[in-house]
Amino acid sequence: MGQPRDVWLRRFPGAAGGSGAGCELVCFPHAGGSAAYWRPLSLALAPGVDVVAVQYPGRLDRLHEAPVEDLHRLADLIAEVLGPSGGRPRALFGHSMGASLAYEVAVRLGRLPGGGPDLLVVSGRRAPAAARWRDRCVSVDDHEIVERVRRLGGTDTALFDEPELLELVLPALRGDYRALSSYEDTGGRPLTCPVVALTGDRDPEVTVEEVEVWGEQTSGAFRTHVFGGGHFFLDDHAEAVAELVRGLLPTRAG
């Protein structure tokens, strides 16, 4: 028996989605990130979209839990919690590490009767085929992890200037980067749903060419959207991203 949904999934006050909304959008944070990262998008898409954000173990209200250091194991746990959508349209949206995780969850859901998502949106992450050799070089040394995350930017980097806060976030970061360094994709073209890839044109983590390889992961439609900015271009283009996602999401009427 798996854990209940409220252990893993978060909704945000003020974002009146719920089961009455036309589509469920499941959002997956970046390495070291938490469900709270998706609050602005949740508010922007309310009330027509039911945004639920995944809270990984080892952070915020799950700080007492050990991080999951295997991306495939983490995908297994999340897919079990989500299960089939029950006929309501569902899309998955992951940023950075969350993109790889959303993809693996989509693969697992696709093996269930009526379980596959209607759309996968991946952001700020190279495709699995392009990631295979590069992620093997990811360091899991604490100092190098911190310096790498600093270079990427984002609002969370302010935590690194406070030693006590740094000690709180390091276990999650360490666990996430270990998961990335050992990750290998399931191979082939396991998805049939449309895949949309978003990226920043100055992202030091991924090139536009590596993002475009995501098209190899599905037999469905594929397209790429390039924004100006670095790894956290979502923060700089929040309104445009919300509008784009709203237009992509499936509805009950198809």
Automatic annotation (TrEMBL):
This is Thioesterase. SMART domains: PKS_TE. GO terms for molecular function: hydrolase activity. The keyword Hydrolase applies. Keywords: Hydrolase. Belongs to the thioesterase family. It holds the Pfam family Thioesterase. PROSITE patterns: PROKAR_LIPOPROTEIN (PS51257). Signal peptide: none annotated. GO terms for biological process: lipid biosynthetic process. PANTHER family: S-ACYL FATTY ACID SYNTHASE THIOESTERASE, MEDIUM CHAIN, THIOESTERASE. It comes from Streptomyces cinereoruber.
